[in-house]
Amino acid sequence: MNVIETENLTKTYKRYKKREGIIGSIQGLWKREYEEKNAVNSVNLKIEEGEFIGLIGPNGAGKTTLIKMLTGIIAPTSGRIEVLGYYPNDLKNEFKEKYAVVMGQKSQLFFELTANDTLRLFKEIYGIPEAEYQERKQYFIELFGVEKLMNMQVRTLSLGERMKMELIAALLHNPQILFLDEPTIGLDAIASRQIRGFLKQVNQEKGTTIILTSHYMEDIKTLCGRCVVINHGSKIYDGRTEALFEKYQNSKKITAIFEQPVDGSRFLTDGLMLEDTPHKKVISVPKEKTYQVLQAIMEENPSDISVEEEEIGTVVERIYKGRSET
Ligand SMILES: Nc1ncnc2c1ncn2[C@@H]1O[C@H](COP(=O)(O)OP(=O)(O)OP(=O)(O)O)[C@@H](O)[C@H]1O
Ligand SMILES: [Mg+2]
After folding, report:
1. I want to staple 45 with a disulfide (CB 3.0 to 4.6 A). Which of 6, 154, 234, 274 is the partner?
2. pTM of this prediction?
């Protein structure tokens, strides 16, 4: 069953263009100029129940705009949109009870209350029966190991702790779809990993459909079986995440630190030196050459070494180029 369907979904923002200087401002009083921006452009999307979808694309691609339309925060300019059988922007109460949205940049919690009281308030807002509320709250508290935080004022929680509470608050009413707009933004590696584990479990155990946007490769790779890539408002890839990275992620980034100064030219069999100082080398190498380059580096006794994936932006750029060339 499809829980989300869109057809030629488009959002055009109209932005008032202010002319420069005082004269420009005065002229603007009777003749306003507008600039139109197709933030989302004719997007067709079908998402089935239980899927975990990664929505990726560079800054300004239209991801948040798409999520805002799917959750009814804004109305589309044109096209068809159906989420769980509803037109989201009608904002019917029955619809609002069936999904949740968490935005990394915007809190939904009540900062002056304790975490416990905040959750209780959500219970009242959604009319969750007491027994269900207790059971779910306990399940999430244990999953996240946040017992100790429950009596703290939300305002005093760290970013990572607050994000865990945001997720618990969003999931209390057992939504069928969870929309996440950059939930791991600004979090350290440990908190991000905990949140990924939590989301995976919610998707698998509760069958919640999850739509996740993130600029972090790790989030997308470990969680999302399917990926939708958008660029300049248009969908440029929709398919298995593995296939996307196999086809378009060509290189790895190796960073090596040495106690003794080292000549980096010998590592560069077939790569690109991104940073070359006597004690630190950062090299971008084709995936299949990673092992070979690592071996050469190991011979120089590095004091530290790390291998990272290419950034999402680089991969998206490559998809985009590949498409415009064919
Ligand atoms: N309220 C608005 N009025 C006018 N233009 C807007 C408005 N909101 C967004 N835009 C423009 O629409 C485009 C898409 O923005 P959107 O926030 O959806 O991008 P995004 O993919 O979420 O980017 P990011 O990764 O930076 O969060 C951008 O060019 C942005 O400037
Ligand atoms: Mg955004």
Report:
1. 6
2. 0.86
List Cα–Cα distances, 273 to 249, 270, 277, in angstroms: 18, 10, 10
Residue 197 parent element (H or E): helix 189-206
Spell out the domain ranges in the chain: 2-10+40-247, 251-309
28-42, 144-158, 291-305: range with lowest mean pLDDT:
28-42
Ligand nearest to the CA of 233: 1
Residue 18 or residue 85, greater confidence: 85
Average confidence (pLDDT) over 117-126 = 94
Stretch among 26-40, 72-86, 101-115, 268-282 having the lowest mean pLDDT: 26-40
Residue 165 CA to ligand 2 center (angstroms) comes to 21
pLDDT recorded at residue 324: 58
Phi and psi, residue 72, nearest 5°: 85, 5
Ligand 1 near 104 CB (within 6 A): no
On whether the CB atoms of residues 287 and 252 are closer than 8 A, the answer is: yes
pLDDT digits over 233-244, tens only? 999 999 999 998
| Architecture, CATH, for domain 251-309 | 2-Layer Sandwich (3.30)
- AA identity, residue 72: G
Find out whether the beta carbon of 105 lies less than 6 Å from any atom of ligand 1: no
- CA–CA distance, 92 with 84 (Å, rounded to integer): 12
Superfamily of domain 2-10+40-247, CATH level 4: P-loop containing nucleotide triphosphate hydrolases (3.40.50.300)
